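Narrative of activities, Objective 1.

The group set out to show that a structural description can be obtained from nothing but a protein's sequence at a throughput compatible with the screening campaign. Below is one input-output pair from the validation batch, recorded exactly as produced.
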Amino acid sequence: MTVLALIAAILEFASSLLGFLTAIMERLPIRKDKEP
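Output recorded for this entry:
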């Protein structure tokens, strides 16, 4: 694999991971509890 292909794979994995985490955060009432 080339360096560009490796970077692209890492960015794709990171973006999918962030989307998965944000989906979980939206389902769990964590942000509402942290509001002042």
